[in-house]
Structure formats: C-alpha cells, structure tokens
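Our consortium's second objective concerns turning raw sequence data into structural hypotheses that experimental partners can test. To show how far this objective has progressed, the report includes one record in full. It was chosen at random from the queue rather than selected for favorable results. The single chain below, 311 residues long, was entered without modification.
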Amino acid sequence: MRYRFRQVLGKKLAPLYISVGGDMYCYDISRRESMLANSTFCRAGAKTVLWGCSIEPELLKEQAVIEDMKRYELITPRESITEAALKNAGITENVKMFPDPAFFLKPEETDMPENFREGKTIGINVSPMIIQHEKIKGITNQNYRKLIEHILKDTDNSVALIPHVIWKNNDDREALKELYRGYEENQRVIFCQDMSCQRLKYVISKCRAFIGARTHATIAAYSSHVPTLVVGYSVKALGIARDLFGNERHYVLPVQALEETGELIRAYDWLMEREGEIRKNLEEIMPRYCARAGEAGEEIKKLWKKEMKRQ
C-alpha cells in the first residue's frame, strides 16, 4: 500500500482521504485492500472517510472489521440496515447516514434510442454480478426472458435493455446480449448503447417502470419517480428499498431466492398493479430524499476546515 500510494504519502500527504466505493467491504479482495489502505493512511497521520457505504451486518461481527471502522473519521452509510449494524457493533460517534450520492445526480438530456416510446417502455437491467449469486444455474436469465415474453405478449409496452456498468469481466452488455438474442428484429425490444451515467439516468427517467440489478441504475429510476423492482443480492438493495417504502418485500427480489422461472413475472405484475400509487409515493418523498443526499457534502467541508485549522 505504501508503494501503491507513494505519490500521495510522505511529503505529499493530504489531510483527508475518501473511499468512494460504496460496496468495497462487500467483497473479500476489495475489503482486504480497503482495510490496508485505511490503516496505511491513518498511520501516516491523515483522516479517512468511508463514503456512501453498505456493509453486510454479519461482517460487522468480525473484530478486525470493527477496529477498521473505528479508524475512519467519518462513515456515511447509505441505508439504515448498515447504520443499525454499525451501531450494534458499537460504532456510533463517527457515523452519519445519508442517501447514496447517486440520488443527487442530475440527468442530462440526450437523444432517445430508436423505437423508445416514452412512458410505454419497461427498462430492464441485468448484471453478471447477480448471475454469479444465483443458486440455480441459469435461473436468472430464464426469469428475465420469461418476463420479456410476458411484456410483449400480454401488454402493449416495449422493452429497453439498458446497461449501466461495462467494466472488463463485469460488463452488463454481455448479460443483456443473452436476453436480446432472438429479439433483434423485434422493434418493441431495444438494446441501448452505453453512455454517461447522466444520460443513462435521462433514458431511465422516461421508462414506465424499471426492473434492474445495478444499484445505481435502480437509484436513477427511484429518483426519477419510476416504479422500480430490484433484482438484488446484498444489503444495499434491501436497505435502500426499506428506507424508501418502509418494507423491502415486493420491491426487492433476492436473486439467491429464485427457484422458479415465473417469479420475476409475479413480482413485476405486483409492481404494475400499484404503479400509480408507487409513482405518487416517489414523487412525494424524492425531493427531500435527494436533497438529503446532497447535504452529505457539508460533512466533508466541515472535516476539511477542521483539518486545515489543525495544520
């Protein structure tokens, strides 16, 4: 870590360092690296911040993780399950909860994909990450394909396949291509190209409803008042839905729980039966919720001023 961060340690040490990976502690490799980085910067004399995070409650039973959390000058969990788990572990003084920063992202107007029908298109996002967490091989893809068939056969809506992450070895487009196979000539099925997160949010905001796997794709939908079903695998999906609706049931479908090919259809139908009610609820709560996400920046300003005075 000293070698990796050699350009910002030593004489170039800054007073404050921020870890912006919200789920860095959700995966073994990134968790170890995050803990080492935090320890390295703290030993060097800097203050650290864990920004917009989600942490599995089970992880906060490990003493090494608890000690690492206490090193941070500030932790801003993005949902209440993580906040409660931190408090149960005795980590309270440096914890302040704010919604995920992505709620504050402003959409950027862009040309809509060909054949996209505003208000008559169901946005669909799937990721390699959720497929890795399925318990029955192939069940996720089967559920999504059944859902697409259901939308095309039983409604007059279109379907837009929308990628949100295109990293090497973790590319939503690869999973979406599997769903697109066989629909290439169907004008009611649209394969969206990658674009900036602001423009993707604009496209998602024009959907009638959104069925998504990537956290920030679903946040783009929530914050645009689009009724949303999350196909999730971790605490972040559960916690955000619970904070928005009071209960994650019906709003999150855990991919680990998928056992039958029609489960996604049933969850989608439940959502659409309450489409107006859900949209109205989001319209009421989102202005304050999104503003609250933006207020988190004030905490960084306070820390920065404090450290600059100390120096």
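The partners drew two points from this record. DSSP finds eleven helices and eleven strands in the chain. The chain has two domains: 6-97, 121-289. Both points have been shared with the crystallography group to help prioritize constructs.
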